[in-house]
Amino acid sequence: METKVIKQPDKLSCVACVACMATDTRLIDFERFFFTKGPPYSDLDCYRYLLSKGLAVGIGFKNEKGYTFKDDDKLRIEFKLKDFPAYAIVKSKRFKGMEHAVYWNGEKILDPNPTLKEDGLPLKEYEIISWFPIIKFWVDGEIFLKSKEEN
Q1: What is the residue extent of each domain of the chain?
Q2: Of 59, 88, 89, 113, whose Cβ has the fewest other Cβ atoms within 10 Å?
């Protein structure tokens, strides 16, 4: 199923848009989930909303200094980007010195930036700050913990 791109209605709602793209819900659903809380929303708000829909962020990374990890470093995370959708934080192309949330659907970046005519830019065009895979753990009312081989 093709993920519908949700463009942000203001400069502070990218987190809400990414959460809605990841869960195939509407912005109004996200806003109702938080009652009176309005933008800006935090990473934790996104995580709470994902959990309410049976999704969780997996192990990810925060690359605050643009460091390139080496094999002998203490932290090594390896997975294929195409294996998981992801919640990602990038340097904003629109507002200098700000961060911006985007959604990786497993194939391409979907960017809620309303000034982009396309759904998103190629992945290589973004400066990634944080990348968190999204993992489904709740399927049809049941906790989904078995591997594909065990089913």
Answers
A1: 14-150
A2: 59
Helices then strands, counting H and E runs in the chain, come out as 3, 8
Residue 22 has pLDDT above 60, yes or no: yes
Among 28, 23, 25, which Cα is nearest to 9's? 28
- Find out whether 109 and 123 touch, Cβ atoms under 8 Å: yes
What is the CB-side half-sphere exposure of residue 96 using CA atoms within 13 A?
Answer: 0
H or E segment to which residue 138 belongs = strand 138-139
Q: What is the CATH number of domain 14-150?
A: 3.90.70
pTM: predicted TM-score of the whole model, two decimal places: 0.69
H or E element, residue 90:
strand 86-91
